[in-house]
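Ticket 4471: requesting a sanity check on a complex prediction with adenosine monophosphate. Repro inputs:
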Amino acid sequence: MTAKTDCLFCGIASGDIPADIVLRDEHLLSFRDINPQAPVHVLVIPVAHYSNAGQLADADPMLAGQLLEFASRVADQEGVSGYRIVMNTGADAGQSVFHVHAHVLGGRSLTWPPG
Ligand code: AMP
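Returned structure tokens:
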């Protein structure tokens, strides 16, 4: 799967668009969310373009698993005692960037269900 020219997160993965990088390896990248919803709010993406979690899991289940492991490494590095991993999938669920990403949220009390 190659980069998509009009994709914001492909631009971040290629270095064309600046971001506050947390961790990266050959296949995965994490950076701080520009509009954080918690003291720790980091996004984890595959470098390759997949539009959502289902498409990633179908095309490359091993990479989908590695993304989860990477998210837990990010949380460990950030030193949070607990964290939430969120993958909004589809516009109705609030997905606004259609390059699959996991939100890693922590650093404050996170209860579920919210409110
Ligand atoms: P979602 O709404 O689940 O698709 O999440 C997209 C996330 O990307 C939002 O939390 C945005 O704040 C975040 N975001 C958008 N543009 C940038 C950017 N340039 N750098 C970092 N995070 C961004």
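Notes from triage: The first strand starts at residue 21 and ends at 24. Leaving this open until the requester confirms.
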